[in-house]
Amino acid sequence: MADALSGIRVLDAATLFAGPLAATMLADYGAEVIKIEHPNGDPVRGHGAQRDGVGLWWKMLGRGKQAMTLYLGSPEGQEIFRRMVADADVVIENFRPGTLERWGLGYEELRRINPGIVLARVTGFGQTGPYAKRPGFGTLAEAMSGFAAITGEPDGPPTLPPFGLADGIAALATSFAVLTALRAREHTGSGQVVDLAIIEPILTLLGPQIIAYDQLGVLQERTGNRSNNNAPRNTYRTRDGGWVAISTSAQSIAERVVRLVGRPDLAEQPWFASGAERAQHADELDEAVGSWIAERDRAEVIEAFEQAQAAIAPIYTAADIVQDPQYEALGTIATLPDDELGPVRMQNVLFRLSETPGQISSTGPPIGAHTEEVLARYDVTGAALDELRDKGVIR
Fold first, then answer.
1. Which CATH architecture is the domain 9-204+328-390 placed in?
2. What pTM, to 2 d.p., does this model score?
3. Average pLDDT estimate for 308-328
4. What CATH architecture does domain 234-314 belong to?
5. Active-site residues: which are they?
6. E strand or H helix at 197
7. pLDDT confidence bin for 1, thresholds 50/70/90
């Protein structure tokens, strides 16, 4: 059976994280993704951990893609790109607004070549507005969205995540936006522009902050691992040095937890009947739960909570994740062959479809691995190929 996105051709001309990760997600479900890199390579190839000079982040981010080099700032590169757009469905880019237009590759030109093209433009601040031409990264979105302001301990500084959170959320939103635009094209026959600002999707996921401020003048404060909406909700250390996390979003779960730790009296308190009121008594609840957990090893704590049907999870590192039986049952971690590294493990596709499940076809290829193969489709071979290489248009 064909993959769900079989027949969709995506030109991934973006760099680093949000745009390329959106293309990766489309590739996982069958889209043909051609990664167009500057002859120097996408910076992500040198970002983060490496083994023997091979970037590991790229191996995940470049999976399922054909890698070619093409300098879009050159007339020759621009002409080849126009030919590629003619039989593509999607272009994903994250240049500063105005860059494609300066190269003669703006949307008006692209849709003249291919009226059905979907141009996904992923930038820090979007295509319009006073900040549009500022350099934008996920860190800035984490700061401006309100995420950092509510993250961290009450007496500590605003806290940024130690990974590309805003970029990842933007990638999910971009892949959804691309599929929405392709669905619309089925009705109209025309493509369109996706204008995605990285500062926006993370703001949506932060919940009712805007409406709470609008209606009540309330600003959410930093509460560490606690919640304003329920308690006990925190991380707790076990006797053997492990950590667990507990959530009591449901009233019945909260009651089971306090009974399990030997404090049924807490459930009789008038304030216990409301999650928000329980949150006002978080110190008392954390003391009851935390002291009980501290006297037991992690495995014992988890088993007791499971028997009581109370919600708990161990706090994992990657070393724990690759050994967990639930992740194994779901197939969350895939093992793939790689020509440079041998077998490698990485996160699998995002979700499972019963009829078109998706798959990782390959790990991120070496730079320019498919340049000649891709250009041959557009009759760029032999002497023409050598000339492009000599001019530095390809590598």
1. 3-Layer(aba) Sandwich (3.40)
2. 0.95
3. 97
4. 2-Layer Sandwich (3.30)
5. 167
6. strand 193-197
7. low
